[in-house]
Amino acid sequence: MLTIDEINNIAGVDGMQARAYTDPDIFELEMDQIFRRAWIFIGHDSQVPNSGDFIRTRMGVDEILLVRQPDSSLRVLSNNCTHRGTRLCAVAQGNTKSFVCPYHAWGFALDGVLKAVPDIESYPGSFDIKDKALHLISAARVESYRGFIFASKATAGPNLYDFLGRMTEAIDNLLDRSPDGEIVMEGGHFSVRYHGNWKLHHENANDTVHPGYVHESSVTSARQAEGGVTPQDELVDRGQTKGMMASNGLTAKDWNAIELNGLPQGHSFMGGFYKSGLLAPQQSDAAIETYREALEASHGKEKAAKILGMDRFNNLVWPNLNVNAQFHQIRVVYPVAVNETIIKGYCFRLKGAPDEIFYRAVRFLGTLVSPASMIFSDDLEIFGRVQAGLETGSLDRLDSRRGIKTDQKNGNALQSTTSSELPLRTQSKAWRHWMSPDT
Ligand code: FES
Ligand SMILES: [Fe+2]
Residue 227: what pLDDT? Predict the structure, then answer.
């Protein structure tokens, strides 16, 4: 355990010390203090709709099973057999009545209770199958907000609603965008792995200076493609991909004008930057009009306009979720090791919206976050370079002072007036809080 002085020094107000990204001991402490205690996003209701449905996923470095119980409640169970620690379940998802270990066939009920032990007669009297120590370990708290499921292994701490704070607005907006008020995770997911620390993802997602440089090649290609949206683009995707690539090429002045918000719990979000093309909020075509009509039928004209007009990008729930309500998708951060991270991207189908709206969300995810993405691959390359640079030990402390003097208070949040590094400072404050021995 680090002392409070050490924590405050590592996450200094002007920037994090490099060892927060390279020291395996600090990573281990983060898994304990943050990923086993704060609210960690686990999955969505629609992944486990029925009794016995489960997904195998991770909470920090711990493998877990998210399981729908017969009474429709949820459990988050350790995926390690209590006999000899074997990984219990090896499939990604499914439906079952019990979990049976592949090694010696100990059988566990959906709530993790040990129910069957072959050859139980040969155990001594001290062995009690009802012993709670033999049950699969359950996360102490599982809560969901409108279908978004989070877990914490700590018995105490803020409730999920308080933890999310204003980030509930992003989840509400995603739900509100569905004419039927229901969303379903669909279409599989993308998974990418980068050689770099987990913190680099959220630090980059609301960084409004990097796109013009890091994504320059795709901006240039999109601009060089002749004829704006050509008949061929029109046929393929109505120019969506080209528009996405070109959008990172705003001028510095325009990036400066995009608002950034940092919330006390470490969360942050930025204003939208698709100002033209198919993805701009005010865009219209046949599919969007059919969708808008369905939304207006549910919410009325005024509220529908407000819902569609909420123009925010990368709503970052610290430490591991990124909600892009406007494009019906999320990204989830999975730390693997101090210098290794997996990012997964998922899409939602809005119930009651035309199929084309879902296809656009899938296309958006493919363009932005697939392993073949012409945008995210740039970011991953940079994460690798940051990590490699920090691992040389030549830099003691990263600098995150940009905008520190001009950020303004807005209630209990901070708001930028420039391309501020405010989200980084927000995240480092949350890091200090959870890493502190007193929290
Ligand atoms: S390790 Fe699971 S039953 Fe033996
Ligand atoms: Fe980027």
Answer: 63
- Confidence band for 278, pLDDT divided at 50, 70 and 90: confident
Query: Who's near 408: CB < 8 A, 6+ residues apart?
Result: 414, 415, 416, 417
What's 59-125 look like in SS3?
Answer: ECCEEEEEEECCCCCEEEEECECCCCCCECCCCCEEECCEEECCCCCCEEECCCCEEECCCHHHCCC
The 3-state DSSP class for residue 22 equals helix
Whole-model pTM above 0.85? yes
Report the C-alpha gap between 298 and 301 in whole angstroms: 9
Of 82, 86, 117, the residue with max ligand 1 atoms within 8 A of its CB, to mutate for a pocket test, comes to 86
Ligand 1, residue 81: give the atom nearest the CA: 2
Q: Are residues 143 and 170 in the same domain?
A: no
Query: Do 214 and 359 fall within a single domain?
Result: yes
Residues 136 and 170 in one domain: no
The verdict on 140 and 258 lying in the same domain is no
Q: Per DSSP, which regions of 146-215 are E strands?
A: 148-152, 183-194
**Domain-ending residue, one of 92, 125, 152:** 152
Minimum-distance ligand to the CA of 120?
Answer: 1
272 and 411 in a single domain? The answer is yes
State which residues form the domain around 413: 166-435
Ligand with minimal distance to 375 CA: 2
Q: In angstroms, what is the span from residue 134 Cα to ligand 1's centroid?
A: 11
Core vs surface per residue 139-164: b (16+ CB within 10 A) or e = bebbbebebbbbbbbeeebeebeebb
